[in-house]
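--- STAGE predict ---
source: upstream dedup step, 1 unique chain passed
mode: sequence only
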Amino acid sequence: MSWFKRVTDGIRTETKDKKPTPDGLWYKCKQCKTPTSTKEFELNLFVCPHCDHHERIGSKEYFALLFDEGKFKELDANLSSGDPLKFKDTKTYPDRIKASKSKSGLTDAVRAGIGKINGLKVSMAVMDFAFIGGSMGSVVGEKIARAIDKAIELKVPMIIISKSGGARMMEAAFSLMQMAKTSAKLALLAENKLPYISVLTDPTTGGITASYAMLGDVNIAEPKALIGFAGPRVIKETIGKDLPEGFQRSEFLQEKGFVDFIVERKDLKEKIYNVLNIFGTHKRVVKN
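--- STAGE serialize ---
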């Protein structure tokens, strides 16, 4: 026998006409955890308005940000990786490539194109972390090499925006060979007296850092980007010592002379253009 008995129904709130909050209306900053409307976040170039944390963005966003009116001619868009080693871990390499293509909408971890920055024609390659962690395989090396060749052909500056976890293990030595190939191409660019600007974003690590990312005539980094060869945890375990505050971040590398400028995303286009003008590029390159 129950001690209490409901005499009348309780108060009910009518919910059948209530509209649920759509997904994706808010962005929660990974750094300060403060929510911001997605629209405001995008208008702020994917930078937190509260703490200035620069969220990772891809080639699509960088092309739109840097090229005049977002217009450019893409180079070698259909290049795709083969499977020279018949590699398999939890899945086969071709299956991993197929899954990455489907998820990211990309053909590989870099896109390249010819466009204009404030009317000045440049060749630019931008890495995408969304495709297997931005890892460098044969296609990444080949597309960057061809973009440098195009810069030499057109006699225009070269810009590479790096964002990568390093070499792609599924291609082993084939991946490591891209470090030498891209570095050799940049040497040819220098011989032709054409400037190369390297933009380092979060993260730039492994074989990318050990090759073209650190070979710029000018190295520019976004604020607080992780930049290094081996990760901090690996280094700490190897040397058995605590690492300095901010180790492998943009500000630390600028202090040690590895980075020339730290530039916020909103200022990146003007900074690149001004640097190219210092090189006298505007006098040697026809703006057409």
